[in-house]
Specification:
Shape: globular
Order of helices and strands: EEHHHHHEHHE
Strand content: 5-15%
Structural class: mainly alpha
Strand order of the largest sheet: 1-2
Radius of gyration: 20 Å
Length: 241
């Protein structure tokens, strides 16, 4: 992610000074211009990723119960991702909580990890009838914050205040990264939805594996750059109240 102190214009976007004198990152619409060249070192890396995915797919076929593997993988991912946001619960804590086993040593934040699992499963289930879109992102966010800290910060809605990432107590001017101001978020997400729609039309007729991997990476980076919702659970967040 481009540092807030960077004054250059990048293919991904650039920092623009706001009326309040801080600088916020404004992403450029996807796909990037000029396009990413899927050749040389990048093509080699994508080929390695495709090979690794093939090995994983083959290994799953040998399992007597692939669903159990996915069940545990989702929960392991939930624990690790939630720890980025400051939670202390372990995989064992999560499994015990889901089994309704009482343990006085269970961290209070285990429900946040459980919400992560529920939100992920909700999103995967909704993909059967709903494309990856702003609407789906908002639905998943609402599930993620249901009944936990941050639940009062408009879950399922786009943010209406400026947030930023940096050391605890830092100001906007000291932040490591400042995403787009709230009035820029709807347009940035509209550009993202347009890109997703165009990519879906292309891949609906031709499965281009390497290009799909590259676009998935760009999608992940684009959502992270926007920080479209209020991430009340970030370990070191900042909010302009």
């Amino acid at each position: 992610m481009i540092n807030a102190a960077d004054n250059k214009e990048h293919r991904a976007g650039q920092y623009v000074r706001q009326p309040s004198r801080y600088r916020a990152f404004i992403p450029k619409p996807l796909p990037p211009d000029p396009p990413i060249a899927l050749s040389g070192p990048l093509q080699a890396l994508l080929s390695k990723a495709d090979y690794a995915l093939g090995r994983l797919d083959g290994a799953i076929l040998t399992l007597p119960n692939p669903d159990l593997f996915v069940f545990m993988y989702v929960r392991k991912e939930a624990v690790l991702s939630s720890q980025i946001e400051g939670t202390q619960s372990s995989l064992q804590n999560l499994l015990a909580a889901e089994a309704k086993l009482f343990d006085p040593a269970t961290p209070d934040d285990v429900r946040e990890v459980s919400n992560y699992v529920r939100a992920m499963n909700h999103g995967l289930a909704r993909l059967a009838t709903l494309p990856v879109s702003v609407h789906l992102i908002k639905e998943i966010h609402a599930e993620l914050l249901r009944g936990v800290r941050g639940g009062r910060l408009a879950p399922g809605e786009l943010r209406t205040s400026q947030n930023w990432i940096g050391p605890a107590g830092c100001t906007l001017a000291e932040a490591a990264f400042v995403p787009p101001p709230p009035h820029e978020v709807p347009q940035a997400l509209a550009d993202l939805e347009r890109f997703l729609g165009e990519a879906a039309m292309i891949h609906g007729t031709c499965r281009e594996t390497l290009r799909e991997q590259a676009e998935a990476a760009r999608l992940d980076a684009a959502i992270a750059a926007c920080l479209p919702v209020r991430q009340a659970n970030l370990k070191e967040p900042g909010y302009d109240r």
